[in-house]
Design a protein that fits this description.
Layout (H helix, E strand, L loop, with lengths): L3 H10 L3 H5 L2 H5 L6 H11 L11 E2 L2 E2 L3 H4 L7 H4 L9 H14 L12 E3 L2 H12 L6 E5 L3 H10 L4 E5 L1 E2 L2 E2 L1 H15 L1 E7 L11 H16 L3 E7 L16 H5 L6 E7 L1 H4 L8 E6 L5 H16 L7 H12 L3 H25 L5 E3 L8 E5 L4 H12 L4 E4 L2 E4 L6 H17 L1
Parallel strand pairs: 4-5, 8-9, 9-10
Antiparallel strand pairs: 1-2, 3-11, 6-7, 10-11, 12-13, 13-15, 14-15
Helix pairs in contact: 1-14, 8-9, 8-14, 10-11, 16-18, 17-18
């Protein structure tokens, strides 16, 4: 039995691409007229006393222990110990939307949702899967890809996890992704694909020409009458090290591409702003022709997914991000750290360009935190274990044929020796 509040949201979304793509779970989701909504009403109108929210309050301010306060002296109790709103701090959400437009100027005059704040980018992926992936709605991603994609799609949602070979003949595999997307669209009437750039584990971002080709593929499928959901996983957005890389998120081009396209952007300060442990991520979505009421309905569905799982995100993290984004020195500090990553990238690039291996073949890389090797002979796990045991070097085995190295976490003066060891160990196997 579907709750009447869910039925109301479903009716608002009826006939849209969102309606066509929704999972069974999404159709059941609603935001209850319970504690949160009643508390919101009281926050506006309860002038004498507000006994709605389960916080300890004195003179209108949340009570804060000194043991917390002394470590966060510049934040108010409402920025540290108070509950956050389900969809996040409204001021931070609006500020992040402004930042998205700054970084993606093609969005300036396009209509898209106000970002919804969730506890980390993994939560973005999980909630998107809750709403749009299930047993007869598979998820498509690159091969290789981050292992959490399959965990979320298959283990959590009971969906098939489809993959296309990310690279072919040393290049991004445009024909491969086109074939895979069209196959899913033909079989299921719709396609759900994650495009993760810079990519984890390869550290690759599309060139400007490749980005145009990807958008054209999506448009062609949409024009054929099939529904397309494109999730742009922009966790490492902006960390580009070559001039020919497309500087904007694909979301900027997909936001108003076609009525049959639902574009979703996953991003946040985690990697972009070097705030890994804050667990602050954003969901932003767009589709040509969606009305304000329909954007509100879909936002409410996402809020229901948040409310029914973690309730809300961390208040101190939101406050710290808000203050940092407003700090005049913030961008300059980011530029400095990105320059450090670029130096590390250049050292790795020079090494793999000047050293050959009969075992290891570098996958294309030009951005982000990582680069990966295709293991042509032998087993990636054996190489990983020997590196760790004999050289004290830790890297990641993504699958039996792929090793990932996070050069982001290797000091510049160690890169040459680390990569020399990787090559030597691989050759000795």
């Amino acid at each position: 039995m579907i709750n009447p509040l869910a039925q109301e949201l479903n009716e608002t979304l009826k006939g849209t691409v969102v309606d066509a793509l929704m999972s069974d779970m999404a159709k059941r989701l609603y935001f209850p007229n319970g504690i949160i909504s009643q508390g919101g009403e009281a926050a506006k109108d309860a002038t004498l006393a507000n006994g709605t929210i389960g916080m300890a309050v004195s003179n209108g301010t949340p009570i804060e222990l000194d043991s917390y306060k002394k470590n966060m002296p510049n934040l108010t109790p409402r920025e540290t110990v108070a509950y956050a709103k389900t969809a996040g701090n409204p001021d931070l959400r609006n500020l992040w939307k402004e930042k998205i437009i700054e970084k993606n100027p093609s969005l300036k005059d396009k209509k898209f949702s106000t970002p919804i704040l969730v506890p980390g980018l993994t939560a973005v992926l999980s909630y998107v899967a809750d709403l749009f992936v299930d047993a007869d709605k598979p998820l498509l991603a690159a091969d290789p890809s981050w292992d959490n994609y399959e965990l979320i799609a298959s283990a959590r949602r009971g969906a098939e996890f489809h993959q296309f070979k990310c690279f072919e003949n040393g290049k991004f595999n445009i024909p491969g992704i086109e074939k895979a997307m069209k196959a899913d669209a033909e079989k299921y009437g719709s396609v759900r694909v994650i495009l993760n750039f810079p990519q984890n584990p390869s550290g690759y971002s599309p060139t400007k020409d490749e980005a145009k080709q990807l958008v054209a593929i999506v448009k062609e499928i949409a024009e054929s009458g099939k529904k397309v959901l494109v999730l742009s996983d922009d966790a490492y957005f902006g960390l580009n090290y070559e001039d020919d890389i497309e500087p904007q998120s694909l979301f900027a081009y997909l936001a108003d591409l076609h009525e049959n396209v639902l574009a979703i952007k996953a991003d946040g300060p985690t990697k972009e702003d070097f705030a890994w442990g804050f667990r602050t991520g954003f969901i932003t979505f767009a589709s040509k022709g969606l009305t304000d009421a329909q954007y509100t309905a879909l936002t409410t569905k996402f809020m229901a997914a948040i409310r029914s799982s973690v309730s809300c995100s961390s208040t101190p993290s939101q406050a710290l991000v808000m203050h940092a984004l407003k700090d005049p020195a913030h961008n300059a500090q980011k530029v400095e750290l990105r320059a450090m990553l670029k130096r590390r990238y250049d050292l790795v690039r020079n090494f793999v360009n000047t050293h050959k291996s009969s075992v290891l073949e570098p996958l294309p890389f030009n951005s982000g935190y990582f680069m990966s090797f295709n293991v042509k002979t032998g087993n990636a796990e054996d190489i990983r274990k020997k590196l760790l045991a004999e050289k004290g070097i830790g890297i990641i085995q993504i699958d039996p044929n792929t090793l990932r190295v996070a050069f982001s976490s290797i000091d510049e003066d160690k890169i040459d020796s680390v990569y020399t060891s990787i090559y030597n160990v691989a050759e000795s196997m």
